[in-house]
Amino acid sequence: MSTAPADRNAAGAIRLPAPVRLIGAVSTLFGIAAAFMILASVLITCHMIFVRGVLGQSTIWQTEAVIYLMIGATMLGLPYVQRLRGHVGVDLLPSLLPPTARRVLASVVMLATIAMIGAMLWYGWEMFHLSWARNWKSESVWAFPLWITYLSVPLGFGLYLLQLLADLWLAAFGAVETLPEPHSERSLD
Known about the structure:
Distance between the termini: 28 Å
Low-confidence stretches: 1-5
Order of helices and strands: HHHHH
Mean pLDDT: 89
Number of helices: 5
Number of strands: 0
Structural class: mainly alpha
Number of domains: 1
């Protein structure tokens, strides 16, 4: 466990190692991409409602596109939500622990999460590769290539794994200030 003083910049803020900052920047970039995918889904849904409700025409690709965009947004948004520590978590026990015990608990939890996400990455890659190799297409009139949507699974879980590794490094070796903190809005104080 690190007891060395944290590396700080001139303003006194903790300066994270370059790989951790890079992973954080990539997570943020994919979070922005996920937000635009959600926006595109909303706009396509509005288009579909207009075409069906106002013009009285049928739609071919809109429903499927919204589904695929939302799957992609969910998968590609995983690392950004992890970076913000926005996933659902029980923080009663960590809030009661001293920093050293909280560091150990955070490391154990992240190692278990990394193992599970590694399995999801493996099977996600297998699903993507099968759809690519066999040229799977959706069964709709649109016949959308499924490998594009399936690619978001290993890509999202791979980026999530990188963010978890960065968070694990911070939990194990970072300054006390970088430990996951219980959410203030749910604190017992």
